[in-house]
Amino acid sequence: MPPTKHRPKLTQKELRAPDEFTTFIDSARDFFVNNLTQVIVSAVVVVVVGAVVIGVYYYERNRDNVASSKFYDAITALNAGKNKDAETQFKQLADEEPGRRLGRLARFYAASAYIADGDLANARDSLVAFLAEERDPLFRSLALTNLAVVYERMADWKKAAGAYQQAAADPGPEQTRAQLGVARMLAKAGDKQGAIDAYRGFLTAHPFAQQRQDVLESLALLGAPADVAPPSLGASAGPQPVVIH
């Protein structure tokens, strides 16, 4: 009698495995079918959002280009002495693009056109609006100095002194001019001693300044000696200071 072949018994886990795999496939298929609408909607949403992002990007790039073109045209008009055209173009750009850098700078340059045209009220308003939002120290210094000039031309010595004082507080190309402006406005406002102190302080801080002789003459007109020793041109322990222009 031939020997009987014994087939290996399958464990319960092995018997159950195909059923589990089949169940997983069926569940996935059922989930996809039951949620087909949601899957399609999600895919559409992704596509739409992507299209919107791309569209906004190119829209903003186009607006940047348009703003740059308008700003260039306005600057060209200002440099050519066409102040009225420059005023109109800068104001339009500032109104259309208040949130863009060029839109904010348009207020600063519009004020320059107004000043050149003698329109002090609009120049003042444009600079005040610009300073309300500007954070760049260089442009703030320039704008404050221009605002002080406007107030000075309007004979508002107190506000002019305040604007010059703010400009003098920050290092920059207009600091020296602003410091002298403070002293000049104090003198015009009748604060003789304040003006003398301001001029003397300037000579102490800037002994080699080109404006030294003008300051000495201003002190003489106020009836006060400089009380500041003239700068020595001899040898010193350190490097000579740079002359401030």
User: Approximately how much helix is present in the residues?
Assistant: over 70%
Residues in β-strands, percent: under 5%
The biggest sheet, with number of strands, parallel, antiparallel or mixed sense and barrel status, is: none
Straight-line N-to-C gap: 123 Å
Shape summary: elongated
- Following the backbone from N to C, one meets helices and strands in this order, namely HHHHHHHHHH
Radius of gyration: 37 Å
| SS field, number of helical segments | 10
Calculate the mean pLDDT score and round it: 81
Low-confidence stretches: 232-245
Structure class: mainly alpha
Total count of strands: 0
Provide an overview of this structure:
- The structure is a single chain.
- With 245 residues, this protein is an all-alpha fold.
- The chain has ten helices and no strands.
- The chain has helices at 12-34, 36-79, 83-96, 101-117, 120-133, 137-153, 157-168, 175-188, 192-205, 212-221.
Record the SSE blueprint.
Layout: H1 12-34, H2 36-79, H3 83-96, H4 101-117, H5 120-133, H6 137-153, H7 157-168, H8 175-188, H9 192-205, H10 212-221
Q: How would you summarize what this structure contains?
A:
The protein has 245 residues and is mostly helical. The protein is built from ten helices and no strands.
Any key phrases for this structure?
245 residues, mainly alpha, 10 helices, disordered C terminus
